Structures are given as C-alpha cells and as structure tokens.
Amino acid sequence: MARMSYLSAIERYEEQQVLIHNLLLSILASVQASLTNKQEYQQLVNQYPFLELQYCLNEQGIQQGDNVCFKRQYKKKLSHIGAGQDLSARPYFLLASATPEPHFTSPYISTATKHLCISVIKTIPAGNNLQQFLVIDVCLTELIEFIMGDIKRARMTPYFKVGYGLIVGCLFCLVFYLLYKVFAGMVDLVLSEDTQSDPLKPFTIIIFVTLALAIFDLGKTILEEEILMHKDIFRHSSTRRTITRFISTILIAVSIEALLTMFKAALGQTEYVIPAVLMMFAVVGLLVALAIYVYLGAKAEDVLTQVQRLKVKH
C-alpha cells in the first residue's frame, strides 16, 4: 500500500476541513507564543510531525529572515534561503492584507518541498505600530494521516510492501509453473501416438490455463492495490474490492473442478455425479453471497458518504 495519494488527501481535507482549520489555528497560536517568548520549536515538531516551514512577511509582502524548517531533511536545503523574497502576489498574502482574520490556502504543490501542502497565515504585531504576517506550511498528506490516527501504519508501509512483494513473487512463480505444465501438456498431446489416451487430458490443460489466469489476476491486483497504489483502509470499497477479487479466484477454481468432475460423470464414472452437482451448488451459493455482500457494502458506503457530506455542509 503506497502512501496516501493527493486525490485521497484532498477528499479527506474537504471532509475534515473544520477540524483541520481548528487544529492549525491552535498550532499557529503556539508558534506565535514561541516567537514572542523566543522559545525553541522542538516540542511542536515532536507533537505535530506534519509541520514543514514557517516564515514571516512584512506589510509589503517581503519575507523577513530565512525559512524556519521543522523537518530535519529540509534544513540543509531550505533553512538558509528565503530572506528578502517577494511574496506580495501570493493569494494568501492578499487575503491577509485585506482582513485581520487568519486565512487558509487551498491545497497546492509547494515549490519548496514539492509536496501537497496548505498554508495558514495570520497577522501579528511587529512593534512600532507595525504588523507582520506569520505563515506556516504543513504537509497535507501527513496532516490527514495524523488526524486519522494513521501515522504508525504509514511508517510500517515499506515493510508491508516487502511482504506483499514476496507474496506476489510466489504467485507469479506459480503462474510460470502452471504455464510450463500447459505447454508440456500441449506438446505431449500433439506428439502422443496413443489413440486410447485419456479424453479428459485437454480439459486438464484448460484447467491449468484458467488457474494460471486467475492466480495472475490475483497477483496483479495485490501488486496494484498494496504496492503501487494507495489503498484507503478507511473506505470500505477498498476492502470490498480486494475480497471480491480473492473470492472470484476461488470461484473460478471450484467451477473448473466441478466442470471436470461433471465430464468424468458423463464419460461413465457415475459416482462423480453427486459431487459435481454439490460443487456447482457451492459455486452458486458463493456467488450469491458475494453479490449480496457487494450490494450491501456499496449501499452502506453510500449512506456513510451522504452523512459525511451533510456534516460538511452544516
């Protein structure tokens, strides 16, 4: 599972906008108090790992002093630049210049950190009846992970990827083995001179092909959803999609076995009739149960989405 995509982060931001703004206002007040009392930011950094940059602008929109970097990886690159930079054309500065209330930007890609972030700006006194503007940049994806209680899982993501990678590798090795059996069976079938060969042999090849296809699709799904793309564990659709793919693989395998058993019964081995029929009933039951699960899961998620939208509107 990759880190949160920008689209998912923006959707979560829109859902939790009020909560996020209140949190950032409290952080802004703490930063302002630290500036006034000339205190260090280390406690804030430890408590709020999504903080990235802090800087101040004068009334003309000129940055006063270099960037203050909350994260260690940015200190070498960004902590010695920024002083004298003209930011008067930035939308958040224009809004803050017009009214004294704090303002929040829409999510945007930061030119400094190259991450999706939002900025909050607030007017603070600078002495001599002057004022300046305090600006804080925060990483939006890490902020969403923080408020969703997802930080520890996000840190474990690289280890999860290794585990899923090993599983996908094993699945693909099994696919190669099945394909080898397919080609070996086809060659043996073509070159065989025995006219009394097993009539079910071609169907055995079909079974190997279909199983290889099902296992390959399962491995591809795990590779896409758990390694290459972000999987939002807080949305039921992600889990529902994975379960659907997995159950589909089982359905294919059981259906093939039922079909092969039915062919054996048709060739005179009547003891296979009842097992074949029971397996077909099992396939139908599993398919109906999966359909009910998918339908009810989609309806439940739709209700939750509507409730979230109503909360945002109010």
Automatic annotation (TrEMBL):
Signal peptide: none annotated. It comes from the Bacteria. The chain crosses the membrane at residues 162-183, 203-223, 243-266, 272-296. Keywords: Membrane, Transmembrane, Transmembrane helix. Gene3D superfamilies: PAS domain (3.30.450.20). SUPFAM superfamilies: Sensory domain-like. The keyword Transcription regulation does not apply. This is General glycosylation pathway protein. It comes from Pseudoalteromonas gelatinilytica. The lineage of its organism: Bacteria, Pseudomonadati, Pseudomonadota, Gammaproteobacteria, Alteromonadales.
